[in-house]
Specification:
The chain has 93 residues and is an all-beta fold. The chain has a domain of 62 residues: OB fold (Dihydrolipoamide Acetyltransferase, E2P) (Beta Barrel). It is built from no helices and 7 strands. It comes from Paenibacillus tianmuensis.
């Protein structure tokens, strides 16, 4: 078995900014779900080999600063101090 590292981050620990230029991971909004005190955005990261999807929680009071429409372009920043990592072993086929 080969060891590997898994990294996780909670949706509320990912920052989202409007736009598609500048520092951050470019992404496209695929779905917006209102959940009362926050919106849960489903985002597709661009330029990732697997076309990775992530969920991000945005406080409702900050929603006016972001494009909350399908296909809008945004930038993601992961708060490094909030990353969770764990080592595991891959199952041999």
């Amino acid at each position: 078995m080969q060891p590997y590292l898994s990294i996780a981050v909670r949706p509320e620990h990912i920052e989202v900014r409007a736009g598609n230029a500048g520092e951050g991971i470019p992404a496209v909004v695929r779905n917006v779900e209102f959940r009362g005190p926050f919106y849960r955005l489903s985002l597709q990261m661009l330029h990732s080999g697997a076309g990775g999807l992530v969920s991000v929680d945005v406080p409702a009071q900050a929603s006016g600063e972001l494009p909350l429409a399908k296909d809008a372009r945004v930038l993601l920043n992961v708060l490094a101090e909030k990353l969770l990592s764990f080592q595991a072993e891959a199952l041999a086929n």
